[in-house]
């Protein structure tokens, strides 16, 4: 039988090739995809998040772990979908607002959310309000994540939130905001549902907003 702790270690250390090999071996041994995700992969990303928060690892290691997680998910999710199993605990659209070309923070948050069981649709950088509305509507997302790194682009977050109200979608999606200059006070001021200052706290915030324990 495959030693499944090696899957945990492969994701923790960001070794995509090993993660794929162990995932395939585990499936050949009859392991259930959901068990692999819940018991080993999500727990590994939880530990990655803890180490990142405590500055025991840094951005490159976090991104590598996210890639390893995604490599395994790419094998498991089609199997789960074909058997009718639910493949995520929630759907999230994320992007950087119009006028802002920064994406490192957004990518970190996307990696952590995906690693913790969410389906993430990353629409990229420099996105206008219409694109956010269109993406949330198309994917029937539960949450929208808005990122900004510049003080000059922060106000556009309110433009996006207002666009959701105009489209009649504001009560159908939770909106969280984040980025270096963004604060909890600013989030409340523009009518966002939540705020996060780290990739790990973004996961906690989203789970709280969706009532996931």
Kindly report how far apart the N and C termini lie: 31 Å
Strand content: 5-15%
CATH fold field value of the largest domain: Rossmann fold
Mean pLDDT: 95
- What's the Cα radius of gyration? 17 Å
Instruction: Enumerate the strands of the largest sheet in spatial order, edge to edge or round the barrel.
Output: 2-1-3-4-5
- Overall tally of domains: 2
Shape: globular
Main β-sheet description: 5 strands, parallel
The CATH superfamily of the largest domain bears the name Cobalamin-binding domain
Q: What is the helix tally?
A: 9
CATH class of the largest domain equals: Alpha Beta
Key phrases:
single chain; alpha/beta; 213 residues; Methyltransferase, Methionine Synthase (B12-binding Domains), Chain A, domain 1; five-stranded parallel β-sheet
3D structure, described in words:
With 213 residues, the protein is an alpha/beta fold. It folds into two domains: 5-82, Methionine synthase domain (Methyltransferase, Methionine Synthase (B12-binding Domains), Chain A, domain 1); 91-210, 3-Layer(aba) Sandwich (Rossmann fold). The chain is 56% helix and 14% strand. It is built from nine helices and five strands; from the N terminus they run ααααβαβαβαβαβα. The protein has helices at residues 5-12, 16-28, 33-53, 59-82, 104-115, 129-139, 156-166, 184-190, 199-210; strands spanning 91-97, 119-127, 143-147, 174-178, 194-196. Strands 2-1-3-4-5 form a five-stranded parallel sheet, with helices on both faces. The longest helix is centred in the N-terminal third of the chain and has 24 residues, at 59-82. The two termini are 31 Å apart. The mean pLDDT is 95.
């Amino acid at each position: 039988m495959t030693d499944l702790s090696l899957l945990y270690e492969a994701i923790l250390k960001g070794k995509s090739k090993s993660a794929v090999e162990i995932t395939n071996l585990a499936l050949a041994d009859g392991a259930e995809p959901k068990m692999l995700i819940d018991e080993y992969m999500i727990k590994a990303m939880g530990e990655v998040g803890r180490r990142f928060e405590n500055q025991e690892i840094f951005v490159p290691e976090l991104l590598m772990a996210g890639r390893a997680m995604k490599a395994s998910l790419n094998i498991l999710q089609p199997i789960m979908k074909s058997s009718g199993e639910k493949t995520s605990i929630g759907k999230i659209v994320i992007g950087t607002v119009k006028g802002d070309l920064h994406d490192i923070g957004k990518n970190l948050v996307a990696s952590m959310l995906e690693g913790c069981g969410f389906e993430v649709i990353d629409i990229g950088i420099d996105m206008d309000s219409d694109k956010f509305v269109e993406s949330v509507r198309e994917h029937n997302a539960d949450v929208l994540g808005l990122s900004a790194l510049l003080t000059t682009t922060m106000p556009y977050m309110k433009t996006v939130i207002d666009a959701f109200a105009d489209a009649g979608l504001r009560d159908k999606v939770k909106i969280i905001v984040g980025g270096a200059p963004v604060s909890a006070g600013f989030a409340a001021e523009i009518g966002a549902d939540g705020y996060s200052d780290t990739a790990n706290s973004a996961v906690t915030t989203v789970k709280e907003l969706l009532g996931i324990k």
